[in-house]
Amino acid sequence: MGNYKYITNRILKNKAEEEKGFLKTRVPNDSDIAEGMYKCPECENQGKINQEWKRPFSVRCEKCNFLMRISKLKDEIKKEKAKEKLKKKNSQ
Ligand SMILES: [Zn+2]
Questions:
Q1: How far apart are the CA of 89 and the centre of ligand 1, in A?
Q2: In the prediction, which pLDDT does 89 show?
Q3: CA 8 – ligand 1 centroid, Å
Q4: What distance in angstroms lies between residue 72's CA and the mean position of ligand 1's atoms?
Q5: Nearest 5°: phi and psi at 85?
């Protein structure tokens, strides 16, 4: 393991909310280039990531042009919690 200032490994959902893809990326301490790989949740194309690191980070599928966004984990947890609340409400 080297030294990275950022590492992430996310499951990606397509427009139908199915978990069909993923995105793995890491940024070395001494560079601003994010490297890694992705699987597009829309068309299941797999590709390499090698682009400038910035937040919010997003990668465009080179085959179907689907935009894969990396949201902050905190925001994602919030979203999930909001969804759960909604589910509970609807089932009562
Ligand atoms: Zn795609």
A1: 35
A2: 84
A3: 20
A4: 22
A5: -60, -45
